[in-house]
Amino acid sequence: MMMVNIPLNLFNVFLASAEQQSFKAAGEKLCLTTSAVSQSIKKLEDLLGVLLFHRKTNAVELTPSGVELLEYVKAGINEIEKGIQHITKQNDTISIFCPPGIASELLSPFMFKIIAEGFQNIRIESNEQFSYNTYSQYDLAIILDETEKQAKNTLYLGPDYYFPFCHKTIYDQINSIDDLYKMFLFHHDFSRISWKEWFAYNDITYTPQKTLTFTRAAQLLSSVDNGLGVGLESSRLLAKKLVSGDYRLCNLPNLKPVKKDITWLYINSNKKENKQILFLRDLVLEYCSTDIEGRLKCLG
After folding, report:
1. pTM, whole model, 2 decimals?
2. Angle of CA points 278, 280, 283, to nearest 5°
3. What is the structure's pLDDT at 108?
4. Which of 72, 6, 69 shows the shortest CA–CA distance to 40?
5. Segment holding 27, helix H or strand E
6. Percentage of residues of the chain with pLDDT beyond 90
7. Distance from the Cα of residue 61 to its chain's centroid
8. What DSSP character marks residue 147?
9. Contacts for 27 with CB less than 8 Å, ≥ 6 apart
């Protein structure tokens, strides 16, 4: 069988499914639906002509053929990563991955510092659809993932707290859940929390009247800036405008924020002794870390 006949992305889905032992968990990692993962695995099995997983009610288990293939896939991905690292080294370019929300809201001081320090070749990539098993191609990567506490080469950047917030111009209009329901509730496709989750956490029935979903966090924040509704976002991203008073946490007494431990800094193990990487690591820790209450440490 010719390798060219098999789409390489199927092996990425296979690796995630094998490591997670769940099509659902693999889908969450890869920003795919469970159905899409299942279909991809079925397609790979059909192309190879072998069964790779035993399907169970809430999990999957590799067959002997799947176990054997997994070793080859890991080796292949490792070779690809070595190639990427070799090219990066040849170009003397430092590569950084950062989620768009953090890039737009927190990295301005970071950029001033690296320019002042005389860095010449830096590539910062920002993408919502980031696969957890590809970040090793970067020198540094800020990762939003609750499972990274178990990963190697990562540093915890502090908790994220999620609570309804609005622009200061409509703050006085929201003093109860009934008031909240009169507003548009904003959400974006890549948020790490949903309104339904926040309501459930506070033991409130979720019966929204008006919702608006965006494809990007930046669109949500722009709409909040214009006083058009209420958002639900991490206090990390909102910190500067909360301090300035442009944003206010809604006046909803006795209701609680949802805490998530999702923000981590990955440092490529091959670059841990690199002075420039260590300098950049310290900048990320300085400007992106939160304290135990979710406030940016750099804001005091």
Report:
1. 0.68
2. 115
3. 80
4. 6
5. helix 23-30
6. 53
7. 27
8. G
9. 33, 34, 36, 37
Contacts of residue 140, defined as CB under 8 A and 6 or more positions apart, other chains included, come to 94, 95, 96, 97, 265, 266, 267, 268, 277, 280, 281, 284
d(CA 223, CA 166): 10
11-40 core/surface letters (b: 16 or more CB in 10 A; e: else): bbbbbbbbebebbbbbbbbbebeeeebbeb
Q: What is the distance in angstroms between the CA of the first residue and the CA of the last residue of the chain?
A: 61
Give CA–CA dist 221/241, Å, rounded: 11
Torsion of CA 275, 278, 282, 283, to 10 degrees: 70
Amino acid at residue number 166: C
pLDDT tens for residues 240-287?
A: 999 999 999 999 999 999 999 999 999 988 887 888 889 999 999 999
What does the pLDDT look like over 174-232, one tens digit per residue?
Answer: 999 999 999 999 999 888 899 999 999 999 998 888 999 998 888 999 999 999 999 99
Cβ atoms of 47 and 9 closer than 8 Å: no
117 alpha carbon, distance to own chain's centre: 28
Give me the pLDDT at residue 105, please: 86
With cut-offs at 50, 70 and 90, classify the pLDDT of residue 130: low
Query: 142 pairs with which residues across the strands?
Result: 265
Nearest to 280 by CA among 148, 125, 111: 111
Residue 23 makes CB contacts below 8 A (sequence gap 6+) with: 17, 34, 37, 38, 41, 60
User: Do residues 150 and 177 make contact, with C-beta atoms less than 8 angstroms apart?
Assistant: no
pLDDT at 90 over 80: no
Residue 1: per-residue pLDDT: 42
Pairing mode, strands 160-167 and 211-214: unpaired
